[in-house]
Amino acid sequence: MLRYERKYLVPNHLMGELRDRVRHFVRNDIYASANGNGVSQYTVRSIYFDSPDMMNYHEKHAGLKHRRKLRVRGYNQCNSNEKVVLEIKRKIENRIKKHRASVLFKNLPDLLESGEIEKFIVEDRSIDLSQSLEDARRFLFHFKLKPFQPTTLVTYEREAYHGILNPGNRITFDKNIRSQNYPDIHDLFAERDMRFLFKNHFIMEIKYFNDSMPGWAKSIVHEFKLRHEALSKYVIGFDVNKSFVHY
Questions:
Q1: Spatial distance between the Cα atoms of 33 and 43, rounded to a whole number of angstroms
Q2: Is the peptide bond before 11 cis (omega within 30 degrees of 0)?
Q3: Dihedral of CA 165/202/43/34: which sign?
Q4: Domain chopping of the chain, boundaries
Q5: How many beta carbons lie within 10 A of that of residue 60, not counting itself?
Q6: CATH code of the domain occupying 4-243
Q7: pTM for the model
Q8: What's the CA angle centered on 65, arms 61 and 68, to 5 degrees?
C-alpha cells in the first residue's frame, strides 16, 4: 500500500513540547520499551546498499521522483537468532511503498551470497509468507544486478506513536542519528566509529495513507512552524562520514 511520509528537522529543545502536544491523539507503538527517562522507544539499525557508481545516492541528489533504496534493517540489540528485514523502499512521486522479507540475522550473509530464498526467508506475523518470498526475489534481483554493496550503516533511537482514531497514522521522533560508511554486513548492530548526523536536531516524520494529513498533525506543523524537508538519512549519513562535518 502506498503511503505519504513528511519529514521535519526539529530542534531538540522542542521535543518535550511536541510530546505533550501529540499525546492526546496518539498511543505508544507496541514494540517500544520505556528507557530510563520513561520514554518509550526502540533502536533502529539499517545498512543501506548502493552500486559501485553510487546510483541511489546520486538519484536522491538529482531529485528523481521514482527511485528505490535497498537496506537491511534490525532492531535493538544483536541476537543471531533474531529476525532482520530485507527491504526495498520505493519512492513513487510523493508516496512510499515498501517490499519486505524477514531472515534470521545469522543466515543473512548466506542468503545474500546464495540467493536461496526458500531456504532462508522466514515467516513473520506482519508479512504474508508468499508476499515475503516475492519481495525477497525482488530484493535479490536488484542486489545482484549492479551488484550492490553495503555502503552506510545508519542507527538511531525512535519514539513511535500510532493515531488513536486511525492506527494507520503515525508520528515518529528519530533521535541520536548516527552512521558509518562501508560497514561489513556483520556490522548491522555495531556502534563503533559512528558519527552523528545532527548536533542539535532530530527528525520528526508524519506518515499517513489518505491524501490529506490528519488534522491534528497539520495543526502541530503549523503551530511549531515546521518546514517539510526531503531528508535522507542514507545520503546525509554518507556525507557526514565523507566530510566529517556535524550539522
A1: 10
A2: no
A3: negative
A4: 4-243
A5: 19
A6: 3.20.100.30
A7: 0.93
A8: 75
Q: And the C-alpha cell for 43?
A: 533502536
Q: Give the span between the Cα atoms of 219 and 83, in whole angstroms.
A: 38
Q: Quick one: pLDDT at residue 118?
A: 96
| DSSP character at residue 214 | -
> Under a CB-based contact definition with an 8 Å cutoff, are residues 71 and 90 in contact?
no
Confidence (pLDDT) at 246: 41
Taking the CA atoms of the chain, what radius of gyration do you get in angstroms? 18
Distance CA 13, CA 1 (A): 35
Which amino acid is residue 93, in one-letter code?
Answer: E
Please tell me the distance from the alpha carbon of residue 246 to that of residue 101, in angstroms, as a whole number.
Answer: 34
Give the confidence band of 30 by pLDDT, cuts at 50, 70, 90: confident
Alpha helices in the chain (DSSP H): 15-22, 55-62, 108-114, 117-120, 129-145, 215-223, 233-243
What is the number of other CB atoms lying within 10 angstroms of the CB of residue 9? Answer: 17
Q: Look up residue 165 and give its three cell numbers.
A: 482514531
Average pLDDT rounded to a whole number, residues 150-171? 95
What does the angle CA 142 – CA 148 – CA 150 come to, to the nearest 5 degrees? Answer: 130
Cell of 15: 521535543
Q: How many angstroms separate the Cα of 195 from the Cα of each of 13, 51, 98, 222?
A: 21, 23, 27, 32
CA 87 to CA 69: how far, in whole Å? 8
User: Which cell numbers hold the place of 92?
Assistant: 513513487
Burial group, residue 206, by CB count within 10 angstroms (0-12, 13-18, 19+): buried
With cell 533502536, the residue in question is 43
Looking only at the bridges linking them, the beta strands covering 26-28 and 33-34 are unpaired
